[in-house]
Amino acid sequence: MSDAMIASQTAADQETAPLSRWQRFRQSTFWYSFTRDRVAMVCAAIFALMVAAALLAPVLAPTNPYDISTIDIMDSEIPPIWDEAGDERFLLGTDAQGRDLYSTILYGMRISITIGLCAVLLQAFLGVVIGLTAGYVGGRVDSFLMRVADIQLSFSTMMVAIIVLAVFQASFGTELYSKLAMVMLILVIGIAEWPQYARTVRASVLAEKKKEYVEAARVMGFGSGRIMFRHILPNTLSPILVISTVQIANAIISEAALSFLGLGMPVSQPSLGSLISSGFEYIFSGSWWITVIPGLVLIVLVMVINILGDWLRDVMNPKLYKG
């Protein structure tokens, strides 16, 4: 067999060989639109960088803001390094307790992102289960679950969170609340926002359950649980992903607002919101960096998540996408 025939046969075998998951992903519309949207690429890079910095906080941070032995109160309110009164030991200056602001922001960003992601996972779990059940079962079950969702939506997330957290803090004391602050924030923010998922998933299920593949699954004797989670759920993932992106930003903002009001993370374990709150009283005394720099980090974090959410919504909706 000649070399030309061997090369031709090899090329034919490569064309007929099954593509790997990465190759299929590279050929997808999602990847195509992402690589041609510079704004989305820049926002994704910034978000990935911030998440990596938060995860690697113990490695990147010069000091541990949770270790009291490394903090000197005499170093309090030192300006950033570019200021004439700055200290080269503290890149972004220090806060009122003498903690390195750069280190504190890294640790605080990790807490904010963790609360945002965990709260959204809880929202998605509750909303998907309730939405699937309501849409697939229908009837009185559907009516009852959607009325519960309507009642939940009639209350502001912040109002519910403020009442629940304030009552918990007053009932069980500040010390216990400080230990359970992260868990309480995840539970309150997660439980308060599940109707967003439930209503969206229910609408998708009502459209999907009338299709032939669902009828075929019923004829084959599959149970309702398997049909809902193995067959219908994968076809409702697009709106779930879009909602999740937006809800992560909302959860981070909610945590920051609650921390600013004194109902979030304690001063000993600061998030971005509690950092802004702790430095707000010093902003008029000249120590603007304690509040402004964490505030800018929070703005950038929420902004890139929202931009990615808008881009993802357009890509997932063919009627909106014009790439």
> How many domain units?
1
Largest sheet report = none
Stated plainly, the CATH topology is called MetI-like fold
**For the residues shown, what is the average pLDDT?**
79
The total strand number stands at 0
- How are helices and strands ordered from N to C? HHHHHHHHHHHHHHH
> Quaternary status of these chains?
single chain
Strand content: under 5%
Supply the CATH architecture.
Answer: Orthogonal Bundle
Distance between the termini: 46 Å
What name goes with the CATH superfamily? MetI-like
Find the structural class using helix and strand composition: mainly alpha
**Residue ranges: pLDDT <50 for 5 or more in a row?**
11-15
**Overall outline:** globular
| Helix-residue proportion | over 70%
Nearest-angstrom radius of gyration?
25 Å
Task: Quickly name the level 1 CATH class.
Answer: Mainly Alpha
Family: Belongs to the binding-protein-dependent transport system permease family.
Keywords: Cell membrane, Membrane, Transmembrane, Transmembrane helix, Transport
Main location: membrane
Organism: Kistimonas scapharcae
